[in-house]
Design a protein that fits this description.
Order of helices and strands: EHHEHHEHEHEHEHEHHEH
Number of strands: 8
Largest sheet: 4 strands, parallel
CATH class of the largest domain: Alpha Beta
CATH architecture of the largest domain: 3-Layer(aba) Sandwich
Structural class: alpha/beta
Strand order of the largest sheet: 2-1-3-4
Radius of gyration: 19 Å
Number of helices: 11
Distance between the termini: 27 Å
Strand content: 15-25%
CATH topology of the largest domain: Rossmann fold
Oligomer: single chain
């Protein structure tokens, strides 16, 4: 984001660092991370918006493939210091407060003595208020579901204790009147086999698959909707369901963008 700044940085002493995991799929980046950053710049015009990604593997890949340099968190902090930024707000686009977010926080705090103030916004899903907000934002996007269709989300999943928030969100959907919405993950519970059993028990014939990730990247393109026999699409079809895939990251949802804005506002209200 910082490469598109046209204002005189020396006139602004406030920086908003937007930290994402990153993606090597340029098309989804433009629709998600770029849009979130633009929305935040519009909402907080007194701040200079900077970008950092936490995946060094993805940073390396796009640098070698596209010749595009993206800052790590440490590099972004150095950049802001050199630009004369004094007050910083860090807003992650991470879905949960897991391993990536903890490492990001540690990297940022290593620079705290260089700045007058430093504040953190929450990841997307942390507390009950977030569960309610995400449920509302998601269902704004899927008002056309038919009665014989289930909406199944693919989250990433983690061994971190923060994984419990996925289970809490699955329950929130159902408690909010959406029993046909299910949330599974690639790397943690519930297993796909268990997820298929739950959908079958609900009694529908159709499934709409969508990524519960900020970007519709490699997991969405391959693990969810790919041609492999082990993709979610093919395994649901093998189980007898009619499957439709939605390749749209959470970052494209207006309601999700709105939640990130709210998290920045909450961070600014902190003493």
């Amino acid at each position: 984001m910082q490469e598109d700044i046209t204002v005189d940085k020396m006139e602004k002493k406030k920086g908003l660092l937007v930290v994402s995991f990153g993606t090597s799929v340029n098309e989804t980046c433009k629709k998600t991370i770029d849009v979130i950053e633009k929305r935040l710049q519009e909402e907080f015009s007194e701040y200079v918006v900077y970008r950092a990604w936490t995946s060094k593997k993805i940073i390396k890949k796009i640098r070698e493939r596209d010749g595009v340099k993206t800052d790590t968190v440490a590099e972004a902090m150095e950049r802001m210091f050199c630009d004369g930024i004094e007050d910083i707000v860090v807003q992650p686009t991470h879905v949960i407060d897991g391993i990536e977010n903890e490492q990001m926080t540690e990297d940022v705090l290593a620079y705290r003595e260089r700045f007058a103030s430093l504040r953190f916004g929450k990841p997307l899903l942390v507390d009950k208020k977030d569960l309610e907000g995400v449920t509302e934002a998601v269902m704004e996007e899927f008002g056309d579901l038919s009665k014989d269709e289930a909406l199944v989300f693919m989250g990433h999943g983690t061994v971190h204790k923060a994984h419990r928030i996925y289970q809490a969100l699955d329950a929130e959907f159902k408690n909010s009147g959406y029993p046909y919405v299910f949330l599974g993950t690639v790397e943690a519970s519930p297993s796909l086999e268990r997820l298929i059993e739950r959908v079958r028990a609900y009694g529908v014939k159709k499934v709409r698959l969508a990524p519960f990730m900020v970007v519709a990247g490699d997991h969405a393109l391959h693990d969810m909707s790919g041609d492999s026999k082990k993709s979610w699409k093919n395994l649901f079809e093998a189980a007898g369901f009619e499957v439709r895939c939605v390749l749209k990251g959470l970052g494209e949802y207006r309601g999700i963008q709105r939640l990130y804005v709210q998290h920045v506002k909450e961070a600014l209200r902190k003493c």
